[in-house]
Amino acid sequence: MQTIKLGSDGPTVTALGVGTWAWGDTMFWAYGKDFGAEDVAGAFKASVDEGVTFFDTAEVYGFGESERLIGQFCKQTSQPVQIATKYFPLPWRWNRSAIADALTASLERLQTEQISLYQIHWPLEFILKTKDFMEVLATEVKKGRIQSVGVSNYSAAQMSLAHQYLAAKGIPLAVNQVPYSLLTRQIEQNGVLEKARQLGVTILAYSPLAQGLLTGKYTTETVKSLQGARRIDSRFSPKGLKKLEPLFSTLKDLSEKYDKTPAQISLNWLISQGNIIPIPGAKNANQAQQNAGALGWSLTPEEVELLRLKAPKS
Ligand SMILES: NC(=O)c1ccc[n+]([C@@H]2O[C@H](COP(=O)([O-])OP(=O)(O)OC[C@H]3O[C@@H](n4cnc5c(N)ncnc54)[C@H](OP(=O)(O)O)[C@@H]3O)[C@@H](O)[C@H]2O)c1
Fold it and tell me: Domain range for residue 274?
């Protein structure tokens, strides 16, 4: 199994993770309508069976349900699983003790005493100072409740500061979790990708399939069956889909060359660049199994560049 370290000194995890925002989320993903507990249990099992054992969740996903489900699923496997979760700086959580309390609650839902990675979900400095978060979590690393510390949705400057606060406590910043896919490439221009490489911070690429668009399964006909918030996303409109045609044609050519699906090619495009772990969401066993097929092979640097050229400007 292809593995990678979180940051310069963090735990080793599989080079592909599994995103679990949809697990229990009724608001964005319409959990309980066209998929439910049995499907996501299948996604967990299929991932672990394929050797993909790194799961990303957050306390806010399904108001704790995603963590709860993962906790239950972990009890049903004998294989070691690595979990990353996140703290959300809600307006009433402005003091340091709230962080340790939230971690305690996440560990309880996850039914474990230690997780691989704890991240701050958004850089809401006016509610919670990054310095406070980093200092509390440095203590939690030393206590052993978390193995590494990460940030999410941080700019290059914010990530550098977080890195600096943590380094003062002798701990490297392990990850910055940001949106990154063939259709969302802002981190290539805003300095995050370059700064992360310089600092030894691993990028966790979220929404790496552009919320399903890069699988190629959405057409003007199939989008009609969409549930949840994507129904009003302009990228899924006929005009949005038309813009993707040149990219899809290249994805199709590469799919044929490697005998892989467009989703696998799109995920491999991220993995092949190095220092990037995609965390595609999977709702069922088929999706999880297919996404695992992005591991164990590699696009050439020329193909990585070609796909970048064919993707619409983001
Ligand atoms: N830190 C943050 O602020 C933040 C924000 C967003 C996401 N995230 C994390 O990143 C993870 C992934 O992002 P995401 O869920 O937004 O988007 P994504 O991974 O780009 O897309 C996931 C969706 O694509 C479809 N899909 C996945 N694999 C497929 C396959 N092999 N074949 C066909 N369809 C497939 C499924 O939806 P359908 O079947 O309905 O099309 C699935 O729910 C989340 O679960 C979460 O852990 C973090």
Answer: 3-212+262-298
The answer, as to whether pTM is greater than 0.70, is yes
Query: What distance separates the 2 farthest-apart alpha carbons in the chain?
Result: 55
Nearest Cα residue to atom 40 of ligand 1: 212
Q: Is the CB of 210 under 6 A from ligand 1?
A: yes
CA distances from 31 to 66, 97, 114, 173 (A): 11, 32, 28, 33
Known catalytic residue at 61: yes
| Residue 247 is assigned to a structural domain of this protein | no
Strand locations in 115-219 (E): 117-120, 149-152, 173-179, 202-206
Number of domains into which the chain is organized = 1
Q: What is the CATH number of the domain that holds 286?
A: 3.20.20.100
Residue at 140 is within a domain: yes
Closest ligand 1 atom number to CA of residue 290 = 31
* Pocket residue to mutate for ligand 1, from 50, 60, 207, most atoms within 8 A of Cβ: 207
What tens digit of pLDDT does each residue of 143-182 get?
999 999 999 999 999 999 999 999 999 999 999 999 999 9
